[in-house]
Amino acid sequence: MGIGAVGVIMLAIVLIYYLRMVERRMASRQHKDQLTLMLEKIAILESVAQDQKALLLVEQAQHTYPGENRLTEARARIQQRLNNDPP
Questions:
Q1: Where along the chain do its domains lie?
Q2: For residue range 20-34, what is the model confidence (pLDDT) as tens digits?
Q3: How far lies 18's CA from each of 13, 23, 24, in Å?
Q4: Among 28, 79, 35, 30, which Cα is nearest to 60's?
Q5: What pLDDT, on a 0 to 100 scale, did the predictor assign at position 49?
Q6: Structure letter (DSSP) for residue 85
Q7: Rounded to whole angstroms, how far apart are CA atoms 31 and 36?
Q8: What are the b/e assignments for 47-64, b being 16+ CB within 10 Å?
Q9: Residue/partner pairs of 58-62 with CB below 8 Å, 24 or more apart
Q10: What pLDDT does residue 87 have?
């Protein structure tokens, strides 16, 4: 096997690792984009005093993204507002 063949094999290995890295980053960005979209919808519902709908959306999002701090904070904020509002 010549030096050129070794170089081609090494280049192929580097290319495979690079493509795997890009794939992981794209999945991470897609996750962030969907979560950001959910948080924007929640903020809109809160701004128009639709706290029940916002809370429902937060609960749905928490099933998809468990342990997400921003969703936990939004849920606590909405529940506090619902508990403080007179019926």
A1: 3-84
A2: 888 888 776 666 788
A3: 9, 9, 10
A4: 35
A5: 85
A6: S
A7: 9
A8: eeeebebbbebbeebbee
A9: 61/35
A10: 57
